[in-house]
From TrEMBL:
This is Phenylpropionate dioxygenase-like ring-hydroxylating dioxygenase large terminal subunit. The keyword RNA-binding does not apply. Pfam families: Rieske, Ring_hydroxyl_A. Residues 1-11 have a biased composition (Polar residues).
Length: 475
């Protein structure tokens, strides 16, 4: 719902700019099809005025024109996480996914190659793949029967005699995403061919993804345990990376965890002490590019013995521990056991690795978002270890879990509250006076600080606005 007038971009003239008047980004990493208005700079960009150092305008969550620009510039203009290669382990396996508004197919072709193809028939545009997941050698369009190989090539049209000699099947393949790259089995794609390599996009976040991958013996993840999805009536930017809310939104869960911590069992033990307390040593971290982390590493390392004890009394646990120490330096293996494959990382804009899941965020409209959660198993770990991971996932994030439903509820209340737009500014200043820069360049704050929110907004502005508008804000 567009309920806020945007601030004037030319205060001296009192002129009101609409976001559709925005200058298009000149940065090649942004959507290539936007039209740049010559001569516009930072002072002419209303979006630059919506993000202040410690506050943001609620139009970012409610304005439909801004939402459309986000689709163009962030979701259609940058890297997105698409899926994990283990989901399509065999030739012909596919998964239907979204890139912003654009439907795509993640598929492993008969040639073994992983592709991301636009899910749009080259005849008159119908989706050629309507199933969420499957395995086939071909995609056959339901509308008029054009048939594509799982490598994307058009292999036949119905009634070929109706097409002239100049019609070439080879010119009507399913359109591939402009770029597809992997980071250790995590498949990313972009509709913009000018994006930097995905490893550069990930930057310091890559090492945090390793916390999940290396926790699997041999580094082999299995993302084939199904998924659970939820939709909430709120803006996509509300999801995740907030360490300030659990003591309130999840108060009852935290008290349950405290009781379980005494027993040394399951999830409670991994949250010994309150990791979200005002006296916690847990941190928030901003790696740049909008990638942020609720950083429990120091906290959990204090409790490595408890995690090890849980593993040791789980069937296959001793072998699991031995495998990690055989494969990695002792310090890193200690860290892997302490973190239990939970990086708690947000990769801007649509990927989160939280607890035992890979999470994809799909914006549907300015006030509706879909979240899909894929529990991750370790291919070479025992059935009991994987069962423990699944039970942990279900207990908080599952459809009957104790946590995610409360998160969705609070996101909806936020969205409703933002409609009160007389005073439109949202405060994200917590911890600005005490955040610090680590040796790797990441910005660090207390677990309850809004370091992630500020980091995400910096990236949001960098992707939405011309570079000269954000030269001081981005890092
Ligand atoms: S739209 Fe696909 S065959 Fe006609
Ligand atoms: Fe939460």
């Amino acid at each position: 719902m567009n309920t806020h007038p945007l601030p004037s971009t030319s205060p001296e003239h009192g002129e009101m700019h609409h976001p559709s008047d925005l200058p298009a980004p000149s940065d090649p990493h942004r959507a290539p099809y936007a039209v740049r208005t010559p001569g516009e700079g930072s002072r002419g960009d209303p979006l630059a005025q919506l993000v202040r150092p410690g506050s943001i305008h609620s139009a970012l969550y409610t304005d439909e024109t801004i939402f459309k620009l986000e689709l163009e510039r962030i979701f259609h203009g940058g890297w997105l996480y698409i899926g994990h290669e283990s989901e399509i382990a065999e030739p012909g396996e596919y998964r239907r996914r979204q890139m912003g508004r654009q439907p795509v197919i993640l598929v492993r072709g008969q040639d073994g190659q992983v592709r991301v193809l636009l899910n749009r028939c080259r005849h008159r545009g119908a989706m050629v793949c309507e199933q969420d997941a499957g395995k086939d050698k071909v995609f056959r369009c339901w509308y008029h029967g054009w048939t594509y190989a799982n490598t994307g090539e058009l292999i036949s049209v119905s009634g070929p005699e109706g097409y002239g000699a100049s019609f070439a099947l080879s010119e009507h393949s399913l359109t591939p995403a402009a770029r597809v790259e992997q980071y250790r089995g995590f498949v990313f794609a972009s509709l913009n061919g000018s994006v930097p390599p995905v490893i550069d996009f990930l930057g310091g976040a890559a090492k945090i993804i390793d916390l999940l991958i290396d926790a699997a013996p041999g580094g082999v993840l299995s993302v084939r345990a199904g998924s659970n999805r939820t939709t909430y009536k709120g803006n996509w930017k509300q999801v995740g990376m907030d360490g300030y809310h659990p003591m309130y939104v999840h108060a009852s869960v935290l008290s349950t965890w405290e009781r379980h911590a005494e027993s040394g069992e399951g999830l409670g033990a991994t949250h010994s002490d309150n990791p979200f307390g005002f006296d916690s040593i847990s941190e928030t971290r901003d790696f740049g590019h909008g990638h942020t982390m609720l950083d429990f590493r120091k906290h959990r390392l204090k409790h490595t013995g408890k995690f090890r004890a849980i593993l040791e009394k789980t069937n296959g646990g001793k072998e699991y521990i031995e495998a990690l120490y055989a494969e990695h330096e002792a310090d890193w293996a200690d860290m892997l056991i302490a973190m239990a494959g939970d990086p708690h990382l947000g990769v801007f804009p649509n990927l989160q690795l939280i607890n035992n899941q890979i999470r994809i965020i799909n914006p549907i409209s300015v006030d509706e978002t879909e979240v899909i959660m894929f529990p991750v198993l370790f291919e070479n770990a025992s059935r009991e270890i994987n069962a423990l991971r699944l039970r942990q996932h279900e207990s908080f994030y599952g459809p009957a879990g104790s946590g995610s439903t409360d998160d969705a509820e609070i996101f909806e209340r936020v969205q409703l509250g933002l409609n009160a737009s007389v005073e439109p500014w949202i405060d994200i200043s917590r911890g600005m006076e005490r955040e610090w820069i680590d040796s790797d360049g990441s910005i660090v704050g207390h677990i309850t600080d809004e370091v992630p929110q500020r980091g995400q907004m910096r990236q949001w502005l960098a992707m939405m606005s011309p570079p000269d508008a954000v030269s001081e804000g981005a890092h």
